[in-house]
Known about the structure:
Blueprint: E1 4-15, E2 18-29, E3 33-37, H1 44-51, E4 59-64, E5 67-68, H2 74-84, E6 85-88, H3 100-110, H4 115-123, H5 144-156, E7 162-166, H6 174-190, E8 194-198, H7 202-205, E9 210-215, E10 218-223
Parallel strand pairs: 3-8, 3-9, 6-7, 7-8
Antiparallel strand pairs: 1-2, 1-4, 4-5, 9-10
Amino acid sequence: MTETVLSGTGLEKRFGGTVALAGVDLSIRRGETIAIMGPSGSGKSTLLHCLAGIMRPDRGEVTLLGQRVDTQSEAQRSRLRRSRFGFLFQFGQLLPELTAEENVALPLLLDGTPKPKALPPARSWFGPLGLAGLERRRPGELSGGEAQRVALARALVTGPAVVFADEPTGALDQANGAETMRILVEATKGQDSCLVLVTHDASVAAHCDRKVEVRDGRLVVDAGPGAAKPELPQRAGAW
Ligand SMILES: Nc1ncnc2c1ncn2[C@@H]1O[C@H](COP(=O)(O)OP(=O)(O)OP(=O)(O)O)[C@@H](O)[C@H]1O
């Protein structure tokens, strides 16, 4: 049986009177790419934020390689996010005053790697991601697709256990979106990282090994080659 890298068990999260997660169980195996789908407001981003240690669930457990994440302090989770996780959002969120290569090197720099040591691994991503020659450009001098690939390189540069991507192609046209997804999946699999992707778009989700659907804070569909049996709502009348 392939090793479980990341696992959420019994995850519950409320915001005031709103139930965002109502008891979600989800395990991600080594090298697996998984798409979290579902309607707007169903809890997808909340699930991603809980799994990534950005947010603490009210109930339930999150473990990375068997170690509890949700019980760690904010400072510990922040360190964990920098060293073991990579993040890619809809708008790459590059720092405009840094060059492309400095943006890619940022997670290493923030973790204390000196700049001369951080830049070579950052630069090594430019060729494979079709960005050769753009190392010294600033984000304002890149196309949307190029900027998103720089953000992707930044997500991968630490060799993270898991890459989390929230609507990573939402701001791109279809061709650029498909190309970004192809590169994202290839690059994460190439270094044996997992990918946890949130998307509305079935054509984006189709790039992943496995698709799960969240409705009203519950996992209602779990499908794909590596999927276990469907995880249906445990309580009748919950949706
Ligand atoms: N910080 C917050 N404060 C209050 N309510 C929140 C907060 N974050 C999320 N919610 C609510 O929790 C529910 C789930 O939100 P979430 O962002 O996880 O949904 P989503 O499926 O990612 O939606 P979308 O596809 O529109 O991004 C929604 O009802 C949302 O309004």
